[in-house]
Amino acid sequence: MRRGAPLAVLVALANACGADARPAVTPTAPTPAVDASDVSAAVVDASDVSAVEEPPQGAPLEPISSASGCSLLNVALLPSPAPLIDPQRMTLRLGLGRTQRGPQSSQGASLFNVNALPGERCALRVAGPCVVRDCRPVLTHVGDRGAALLGVLAGLVTIRGSGMQGPYVLGSGENGIYATAPMGAVRDEPAWRADDVACVVADGFGLVPSFRARVTVPPMVRVLDPTLADPIGEVLVVRRDAGLTVRWEPLPEEVTVSMGQRPSNGQIGTWLEDLSMVCAYDGMAGRAEVPPEALAGFQTLAEGNSSGSLSVSARREVAMTAGPVRVILGATQGVSLRARFE
Length: 342
Fold this sequence. Notes:
By secondary structure, the chain is an all-beta fold. It has one helix at residues 292-295, and strands at residues 76-77, 90-101, 104-112, 123-127, 130-134, 157-161, 168-170, 197-202, 211-216, 223-225, 236-238, 244-248, 254-261, 275-282, 287-290, 307-322, 325-341. It has one domain. Strands 1, 2, 3, 4, 5, 11, 13, 14, 16 and 17 form a ten-stranded mixed sheet that branches. Strands 7-6-8-9 form a four-stranded antiparallel sheet, with no helix packed on it. 50% of the residues are buried.
């Protein structure tokens, strides 16, 4: 994978807006799973759910050239659309895809498994078509890192594509939080293309059975506004009180507008502790209006940190269950810009 822009489009995981490239963590003894909930606006893949023999744990994926090369295993598809918040189910959100920033291209994968119930470590709120997830820690003294993040585990997770992409191997580290698949390593890899099949194999852990799932990759979206003459060197100014208008060339896919911001505390070491916003729109509309209330939580320079990111992506999602856990598997292709909030 070529060095380039962070794969911000993967948070809607994860919805991991502004996710930076961090190496995968070798799995350690995981902590018990906790109840968790996440957000989704899923489009269900109505493909065949034929049962197949369960592969041994850790078995590599066979080469896949189509959906038939990735039969579903131990999952049940959910109706579309899935509820935004499901407090009755733990949720794993897997994301994969590609993002462009000018001439730079990045692709990778992530798994968001953090507890996001109201009143817990992460907070969720809905603002029009947008869901804002705030995982920034509440700090009470110097050196404080806030309450621990806890994750729902599915064992080692491997993702490969029919275009020979990957493998992306996601392992859990401290408190069972998954690392983002590394994107900074110099590595030749085919780019995701429209309708490539992404196959996910999870070894399973505890109450979560081993499972196999798939999603097809959407086409790349063509953004008309906002744009920058130099996407590498320039920064987009976003006024919180004015909202944001985004336009793209219409396409028959869901389009998401995502923004993210890292905490201003320099001790925070993971993208999971971002403030992130994901808004979903009909791709054929070609236009999105992000309301000011969705931007209200982002900080300006006077408040400690004005830097962030904007991503506009085509997205396909599949919602399913694996044992007691809801799994949201999403694939995105989009563009990203550096942003500054005022």
